[in-house]
Write a structure and sequence with these properties.
CATH architecture of the largest domain: 3-Layer(aba) Sandwich
Largest sheet: 7 strands, mixed
Distance between the termini: 45 Å
Low-confidence stretches: none
Number of domains: 2
CATH topology of the largest domain: Rossmann fold
Radius of gyration: 20 Å
CATH class of the largest domain: Alpha Beta
Strand content: 15-25%
Helix content: 25-40%
Strand order of the largest sheet: 6-5-4-7-8-11-9
Bound molecules: S-adenosylmethionine
């Protein structure tokens, strides 16, 4: 991707800037989000405002988190503070819990996310799941396929398990490169994520679950007996009813939770 001038702004590769320019696609995304007046919503990376404008129109007020100072200056010129609250900085470090969402008005998070930080941003956002109603994102299709992948498939891995543990997720539709300026090299997809109720999550120690999942997928070709050596011995595999000769990709999210709770109960891997 070359640096590319759009609407008087030079798109910055380091900030993953591909701006939506197809009005039909923009309308489809906004319809999929279904913003309602008075909702608390934050858009990550508003850019030149392709989604920002129709969101403000429907909501009345929107929060945005943007890292690029030139784009922030443009947003300040275009929107009144009563319509738009601009949070200047890195979404990876932003405290999404600071936006005043509560049980009555849980937070909705949306964005055409910068692809170069998709995985870290998804893990960062997962930390705020308790305050969130839903999230609708555009991401590289390949990443969305990994997020929603089923056990036993090639795409199934750490990202699938850790997100499916916490969210109900669905791929909504694909967006071709031609819908952006400049056009990215890859297909994109829209994904919706809704946090599961806390009582459905089930892991007693989520940090331990994270370490187990990371270990299980660290060396994909190796069996659980090898990858989970630090956590489980033959007796544990037998107690859990799991075949130590399987690879991590065969296990369902519930299997990983059972392993983590078994280890927590035995004081392992803590
Ligand atoms: N929403 C716009 C659209 O759809 O046309 C822009 C999308 S563009 C793919 C990603 C946007 O995220 C850019 O505006 C970019 O400056 C911003 N961005 C990149 N990295 C960021 C970060 N770490 N924190 C906040 N915003 C970031």
């Amino acid at each position: 991707m070359q640096d590319f001038e759009t609407d008087g702004h030079r798109a910055r590769k380091r900030f993953g800037q591909n701006f939506l320019s197809d009005p039909n696609i923009i309308r489809r995304i906004i319809d999929a989000i279904r913003p309602q007046p008075g909702e608390t919503m934050v858009e990550i990376g508003p850019g030149l405002g392709a989604m920002t404008a129709p969101l403000i129109e429907r909501l009345g007020h929107l929060h945005v988190v943007e890292i690029d100072r030139d784009l922030i200056a443009r947003l300040r010129e275009t929107y009144a503070p009563a319509q738009l609250t601009i949070h200047e900085g890195d979404a990876l470090k932003f405290d999404f819990g600071s936006l005043g969402a509560d049980a009555a008005r849980p937070l909705r998070i949306v964005g055409n996310l910068p692809y170069n930080i998709s995985t870290p941003i998804l893990f960062h956002l997962a930390e705020f799941a308790a305050q969130v109603k839903d999230m609708t994102f555009m991401l590289q299709k390949e990443v969305v396929m990994r997020m929603v992948a089923a056990p036993g498939t090639e795409e199934y891995g750490r990202l699938s398990v850790m997100l499916q543990y916490r969210f109900r997720m669905g791929r909504m539709f694909d967006v071709p490169p031609g819908a952006f300026r400049p056009a990215p090299k890859v297909m994109s997809s829209i994904v919706r994520m809704a946090p599961l109720p806390p009582e459905q999550l089930g892991a007693q120690d989520e940090a331990l679950l994270g370490r187990i999942v990371t270990a299980a997928f660290g060396q994909r070709r190796k069996t659980l007996k090898n990858t989970l050596r630090e956590f489980l011995d033959d007796t544990d595999f037998a107690a859990l009813g799991l075949d130590a000769g399987l690879r991590g990709e065969r296990l369902a999210v519930a299997d990983f939770v059972a392993i983590a709770n078994h280890c927590a109960a035995r004081g392992r891997g803590g």
